[in-house]
Write a structure and sequence with these properties.
Blueprint (H helix, E strand, L loop, with lengths): L9 E5 L6 H27 L8 H21 L4 H21 L28 H27 L6 E5 L6
Antiparallel strand pairs: 1-2
Helix pairs in contact: 1-2, 1-4, 2-3, 3-4
Length: 173
């Protein structure tokens, strides 16, 4: 025999943690940091196209992931994507620091020395200077650190908690 729950009133779901100002600010910062990170990655990819050495598909995939995550967090309160954003940010933080300071042997700043070709843009013209590409790459790192902090804070705010609130049905006599 199945248990039937008698509900004389309709039930409405509310998300009380989404109504707080701190939650809205955190969500806005996460979306903003994702969009800024995507813009900087695109700038490095387009401005240093000829020097990326096969990393362009990875860069565009990363940008696409960040844009999709920003959409779902911004429009649909997708709390489950916050740890994904933080994990991707941690990886990008490490990559940007290695590329910026030359942890793999050569940084963008070393490319100003004689013997290095200038970067070419995606559109065929001259790309950004090596110093500009280095600065953009290093700017990605603090954005990722902030993204990790705000995504973690947003996850702790429990955006997914829902509460059933009875909605009284008007009775006609």
């Amino acid at each position: 025999m199945s248990a039937v729950r008698a509900t004389p009133d309709e039930i409405s779901l509310t998300y009380p943690n989404r109504d707080r100002a701190a939650t809205h600010i955190t969500k806005a910062f996460v979306v903003l940091l994702l969009l800024l990170s995507a813009a900087l990655m695109l700038a490095v990819a387009i401005g240093g196209w000829s020097q990326l050495q096969g990393m362009t598909p990875v860069t565009f995939a990363w940008v696409l992931c960040y844009l999709v995550i920003a959409y779902f967090i911004g429009r649909r309160w997708a709390r489950g994507l916050l740890p994904v954003a933080a994990a991707l940010a941690l990886l990008l933080l490490l990559v940007s620091l290695i590329a910026g300071v030359g942890g793999a042997g050569t940084s963008w700043f070393d490319r100003t020395d004689p013997g290095y070709a200038a970067a070419q843009s995606l559109f065929g013209g001259a790309g950004f200077s090596a110093n500009t590409l280095g600065l953009l790459t290093l700017l990605i790192a603090p954005l990722q650190a902030l993204l990790i902090v705000f995504a973690s804070q947003g996850f702790a705010q429990k955006w997914n908690v829902e509460v059933e609130v009875p909605v009284p049905v008007p009775r006609h006599a």
